[in-house]
Amino acid sequence: MAELPYEILSQIAVNLSTTDKCSCALTCKAWRYPFQEALWRNIQIDTCQRAKELIEMIKTSQNVSTLHCLWVHSLRTPNFSYPLEVPEIHFFGLFKHLPNLKRLDLGSNDYRNVYTEITRSDAVWKSLESLKIHLRATKDKQSAKDLFEFINTCSMLQKLEIHRVEQGFHTEFSVVDFDKMHQNLQKLSSIDAEIYLNIDFSSILDTIPNTTPAFAVTTLDIYSIAYECHSIYYNRDWNKWNPLWLYYFGYKYPNLRSLKLNATQVRTDNMNSGQKLAMISLFQSNPNAFRHLETFNFTIDEYFVFGDFVLWELFYALKVPLKHLELDGTHCDEVDRSYPIDIDRILRSFSETLESLSLTGFIYSDNDENSILELSSYYPVLTNICINSDGSSLNLGNLLDRCVALKQLKFGAGYLSIDPETTTEESAQQKQEQHYQHGLQILILHECAVTTELLNYFSFRCRSLEYMTLDNVFIEGSICEKTGCMLLDMTHTSLKTLNIGLLQYGTSDEVTGPNHTIDLTLVSQLSDEKNETEKKEMDSKWPIIGINHIGWFHTYSIWNYCGRAYIYTMKLTEKGSNTPLEYYQNLRSNRISQTVKDASLCNENISKMERYCRLDYGYAELRFKKIKTALVKYEKEYFDCGNNVDLLINDLLDNCPAPKRVGFSGRTLRIKPSPTTEDLKLQQHGLQILSLYRCTTFAKVLNYISLRCERLRDMTLDNLCVLGFRCKNPGDLLIGMPYTFLNTLGIGIVEYSTSSKQTGRDYAVSLILLPQLNDPRLSDEKNERKKTEIDLRSPLLAIHHIYWLYTYEYEPVVWRAGQETIVLSEEKVDVILKYDQSFQSNTASLTFKDDSSYSGYERENNWTHGLYNGYGELRFGNIKAVPVIFLPEDIE
Questions:
Q1: Is the pLDDT of residue 400 over 80?
Q2: Domains (ranges, CATH) in the chain?
Q3: What's the whole-model pTM score?
């Protein structure tokens, strides 16, 4: 291996992780430089500290034989949500020493921080091939002259991305701006921009046929929006869309292969017949337009005002060879019911080339809501179809017959059906016909309804199915009276991955009633390990014992104080799974009307939130031939407990071992008597992201989370109240999270309420110390020595202080008060430290003044009146990025 050529080692290094590259670079001299070069090739700066370190390293490397800066091809700067700590001149020096930089992502930094009078002559702009910038919206319309100057300086640019940040007015592009940009950027091939396309073509319409083509451009993705705020209707006062941009693109980009346009939140004016004829004439005057276009994605609020017109009068009329077509007509998050879309016509019109079709937010019939969508022709090229609408019905058998090459089907917001006479008990001759078996590999069902017969038919006919997603699906069938089971027989299907979202079941028996919804699912597979003899000897009374159980899954609802229901699915623990198994094995001895609320199945905390498994309603068994992996969609990715509930954090972590992300916005986050630290070390949870918002918790709860969840990396605390006991000396409420090493921390309004064990009095705390045990400015040796020199009488000096924060009330408007958290200056921090060192004598002599007697400005500047109440200390092991301090909500 050591004798491998440099080029081969470089290719190997590209495919390794950062840790592996470091290890290889230290292996031997022959490997050092190829793996070092790979480490330097793509640099991502996460924090200001890393930016300073990188600048210093590059400056140092100028004096050695190995110029690390020559290896840097890609650089991404931080997403700062706080004032830039690195002086601009440092960035100037950084870019000056990166002559081979090819890809630059400025994160959330304003491009004007790096492109100034000093840096405009730097050679780096001439070498860039990819540029990604974020433009901050403004309260008023502003000229984009500086932006165009910056972009046009990057003469070798091939890929340009412009994204918007915040709300307000966005940058406006005209036809003239596009022409000038392409005059300077001859190699530009991809444009992805969130900008506003100027609608005024009055002065340049006649010049468009003479525009200079930009032959290099093959990909164009435009999200056109002029103004954006919280109100969609107010946005429409500013946002408009002109289809003549497609007329311009047809001439400007003759080699375009992918075109994505988003023109939502727009005010549309209906065109009269004369305007339509004039536009059709313009569209069709360029027969060579979009000759190479393969992908078209069009999202617009009112599709049939412009979208339908563009599809038929431009792309179909010019015989554009579309392979991938995606149309979204969602209007204000609802289906566009202005006119039905004709799927069959679209497929017929582009049948020779169309491979994938996605339609979202449409109706498919005029008046009859019960009509079933069926295709009339064969479409042998189509491999991927997505139909997502409200109330749509699709004939599955017809779809499989007409689309014989289909590999992926995604269906949502409707009813999937088969012909009533269609069953798996077809004639033996039909079963043997090769064309009857379909090669579908991926099935995604979302917010729709199906029957058990349909799933059985699906399994029988699509035996190549490998990936299946069931998310928010209602399944109708019948329950076996003897076993209490609704069987979903898919025993012809061997899956690689099954994704389970929200599953509920209902029976066709009117006696059962509409409220008897089954929420319990058993996922199983035929056991390959059991031999045929054992299967034949299975006790017929207990059929659920004769298969291999993957797991029991429970779908439940949580109602918040607004009356809104949140629905989740969780996998039951091994202990909890024993309860339904025993119940259904002894079903004959159980009373049919009995309601079971079992504490081992749904723990105490979940019971309080009214999650009950109604075993007397029965269960559904989703039985496959084989499953390699079964995933619970909402449990693994995110667990949100909703509002107006209490939550026991240890029960959640014990019974839900999979969540990586937990969000809580309820009443109180509590804890039962917790085990010892040693026990917690053996029960580590994989939680990585925690968000606490508008709730109350205790200091011991956060300490428990730190002990139990050492993988926690991102944390958000806002509108949080922490309760605990105040220490007599130095008078602080310690929230110890020393085992937590965060990448990011977002903190907003965090209040503390303390009780003194000596006096029993409650105190409201306004001062917050945010420290960490690890001081990144010190080496490990210095850090350890500093710890050994701690003055026990002043523990405040034993840790690295990040911020002192102060929360106070203010009145932005006369009728409503708000709260804000600010960072105290170094001078104010000095006062706190001096006060704390003599806390006992100060508390005896200081006359406490109530903060409520001061105005908002006075309270902000009279923070010393809160010293008597002590302070809250939220102590972490380490915080990698500078914490983000949230600003108060905009309530005007």
A1: yes
A2: 129-338 (3.80.10), 340-411 (no CATH), 435-531+544-584+603-635 (no CATH), 713-885 (no CATH)
A3: 0.69
